[in-house]
Amino acid sequence: MSNPIADPxxxxxxxxxxxxxxxxxxxxxxxxTVVINGVGPSNAVNGETARALKEAFETLHGADAxxxxxxxxxxxxxxxxxxxxxxxxxxxxxxxxxxxxxxxxFGEALRAxxxxxxxxxxLVEGEAxxxxxxxxxxxxxxxxxxxxxxxxPSVKTGGxxxxxxxxxxxxxxxxxxxxxFMTGRSFQADHALTIGLVDEVTDxxxxxxxxxxxxxxxxxxxxxxxxVTAGRLAFAHGVDVEDAPADLASPxxxxxxxxxxxxxxxxIGAW
Length: 271
Fold this sequence. Notes:
- By secondary structure, this protein is α/β, with parallel strands linked by helices.
- The chain has a single domain (16-267), classed as Alpha-Beta Complex (2-enoyl-CoA Hydratase, Chain A, domain 1), CATH 3.90.226.
- It is 41% helix and 14% strand.
- The protein contains 10 helices and 9 strands.
- It has a 6-stranded mixed sheet with strand order 1-2-3-4-6-9, with helices on both faces. Strands 5-7-8 form a 3-stranded mixed sheet.
- Helix 1 (47-59) runs parallel beside helix 3, helix 4 (131-138) packs across helix 5 (165-172) and helix 5 (165-172) packs across helix 6.
């Protein structure tokens, strides 16, 4: 069966049951935009959103006509991270098996994002925190609006960002990742540029994306794909993402966080 993006390009390629969560837009030029329409106005991520992202990204694996993939959030914000109601349910209501399945779904979504065979670019405005910042780190490139905000706040709610950690370490290095995970502090787009989480800060996000699309599309697709593949071979400072911990940050005993965080940081090579 032919891939719906590859031949022909269509307006929406995800299955009907996830259309409300993820919008995949494509055109004949080879530019694909994946729009996150998560929980609430901040596009928070829950188990359903994670599975929708995974399906959308996997659909793009065979999209031979795709030349560049942009990832952005709906309504002027990228993603605030894990949905608090979802985290509360994981801590209080869901069985251990259900928690593991939801966490694994987001981990698989991140892996699927990194396996898209053409350049992936996060277009960040508003907030990109926690899981949202992890998606930014997993893209090949990221452009941020000047007013964008970032952070890895899970430590403040008793969580450990183990699922996104390998991607963040790959993007900004182990020392900076450890500091941000331990403090949970938020930071602005200029600091994200300084540490390497984003590649450009702009007051014209749409224009910057259009320019990058023109630059990327000006090269032969196979050369771009080869370069992307070569760049990903040096992934994560030797961290094997396949072996990354499956547990997603969730509320728990805040007193246990320092020990849990230390274990995770040692596992990913940040300590």
